[in-house]
Amino acid sequence: MTDAAVADRVHVRAPGKINLFFEVGDVQDDGYHDVASAYQAVSLYEDMWATPADDFTIRVSGTVDVSGVPADDRNLALRAARMLAQRAGYEGGVHLEIVKHVPVAGGMGGGSADAAAALVACDLLWGTDLGMQELQRLAARLGADVPFALMGGTAIGTGRGDQLSQALAKGRFDWVLLTSEDEGLSTPEVYSHLDRMRADRAPDIAPPRRTPAVEPGVLQALRAGDAAALSVRVRNDLQPAALSLRPALREALELGERSGALAGLVSGSGPTLAFLAEGPEAALELQVTLAAAGYPALHVHGPVAGARAL
Ligand code: ATP
Question: CATH number of the domain that 296 lies in?
């Protein structure tokens, strides 16, 4: 294949995610954990503009603190672009312009969304036309959350979270997100903290089951579009570890739960907190209450589509 791009500029949007159920199994020999996750893509997006270039370059800005985001080959989006070029035999490059809205190291899969956006953007820009199945295969090589950022909607992930199947969800679910102004939490650090807590048999830690699985009640509540039923099923095994590493989150979690949220949980490895609301009005009220208490919050909804060109 040559280096002739078929478009001048491509704009792609990719969503952040919430894990509304996250069970973590035992650590495997390769150091990874088997997990069972119910993902929902929510209306907080990363924007990416891709333009043809001779080399591979990236510029990152955003409405969130992007100081922790590398603007070189360590950036997952740039790695995604290079991987796609190699797979397709494309000899040119790309300049990626990312405007981030998903908090960095916030447990909402922002880096994974950027990688998914880069796959979709470069595939269109270069006319490589690999098809969704092949893009999914590349996504899985980039990271456990990248396939879901491509797929979007609501999905169940097993294995490392990357063996995905779409889940039926009726209507929309309203979420209020409390993003942390402090530094993010490192996902590997949260996992190893959980392993230590389990080894020490901390009192609020359940022992891992052999094969993690999403509870059927979660799927029923999603199918029925029943936020109240879902609220008693949400769960995140990483939550005790995230709260132990960042104790200040407890207060915010309790405030949200006291202020009308149906449920509150740490999103992924945190420190973002996600509160499930009964509907749009309840979410707005909760957002106002949290803001008045000094916690700026965002109202989002899910499910929304995965990485797509606009
Ligand atoms: P997850 O929930 O998938 O574990 P996260 O949302 O907690 O991820 P990210 O924002 O995806 O965390 O990024 C985690 C780290 O990855 C960052 O601290 C940063 O060093 C690195 N990184 C690499 N590429 C990116 C990117 N495009 N955007 C953000 N971080 C990136």
Answer: 3.30.70.890
